[in-house]
Amino acid sequence: MEPPQGSAAGGRKRRRRGGVRNRRKALPSSQQAPPPEAAPPPPPLPPAKRRRKDGAGQAAATPKRGITSSKLDQMRARLSAGHFRMLNQTLYTCSGQDAFDYFKENPNYFDVYHAGYQEQMSRWPEQPVNIIINWLKSHNASWTVADFGCGNAAVAKNVDNKVFSIDLVSDDPSVIACDMAHTPLKTSSVDVAIFCLSLMGTNYPSYLEEANRVLKPSGWLVIAEVRSRLDPNNGGADPEKFSKAIIQLGFSLVSKDAKNKMFILFYFRKKEKSKAAKSIDWPQLKPCMYKRR
C-alpha cells in the first residue's frame, strides 16, 4: 500500500528541514558565513563649550546672556564700593582695639578697605600724604618718624628718615600691626608723629596721648584731617576746640594750613617741659561717611 500523501509530505518536510540543518553543519569552516558585523558606534556628541579660565586656573563663571562684560564690571565695582563703605563706617564708629581685633580676624577686609580708600583718594586733586612727605624732605633727614595709620607706608617709601610705620593689619614685615593707642615704641624715642587721615576710632584722643608719650621734647605732631570732620557748620567739630585740646595735652600750635578744600593740616610741637591737663575736653570728630554713588 502507498503511504498517505499527507504523511509523505510531512516526512519530506521533516527531511528537508533536517537536511538543511545537516548541510549547515557540514559546511567547511572556510565557507561558513561571517559573524554579523558589530553595530557602528553612535555619532560623537558635539563638543562642550569650553569655559574660560581665570589666572588661577579655575573655571570662570560664564556670563549670562544679556549681561555684558562692562555690566559685570559695573556690578563688581558697586559691590566693592559697598564693602568699602561698610568697613569705613566700622573704623569710624568703633574703638581702636575693636578695629584691631576685627581686622586681625578678617585680614582680607583690610585689603578691601585700602583698595577702596585708594580709589577715593584718586579723586582728590591733592594728597595730604604728599605734602607731609615734602615737609619731611625739607627738614632733618636724621629725624625718627612714627607714621600712625600708615596705610601703604608711603611716607617710609619716600623719605630718607627712619620711619616706624604703624597700622592695624599688615602683610608687610616693616609695618607694625597694633592698636595705635598701644604701640611698642619706646617713650621719647621719635622726633615726628604723623596722623594722615587716621584719627578714625571713637577713642582717637588715646592715639594722640600715645603720640605724646613716644615723642621727644620739641618733637613734631603733624595731623591731616578731612575738612568735613572739622566743620561746625556741617555737624563737625570746631577746629579751634580741637587745637585747644591738643595744646592742653602739652603741645603748641605752630601753624595750620586750611587752604585745601578737602583737608586741613596742623603742625604742633611738643613743649620742652609740660604736663598734660588732668581733664581735657576733647571734641567729637564727625565720622567721614562716603555716600553711595
From TrEMBL:
Lineage, highest ranks first: Eukaryota, Viridiplantae, Streptophyta, Embryophyta, Tracheophyta
Subcellular location: Nucleus, Nucleolus
Listed transmembrane segments: none
One GO CC term on file: nucleolus
Organism: Urochloa decumbens
Superkingdom: Eukaryota
Enzyme Commission no: 2.1.1.-
Protein name in the entry: Ribosomal RNA-processing protein 8
UniProt keywords, alphabetically: Chromatin regulator, Methyltransferase, Nucleus, Repressor, rRNA processing, S-adenosyl-L-methionine, Transcription, Transcription regulation, Transferase
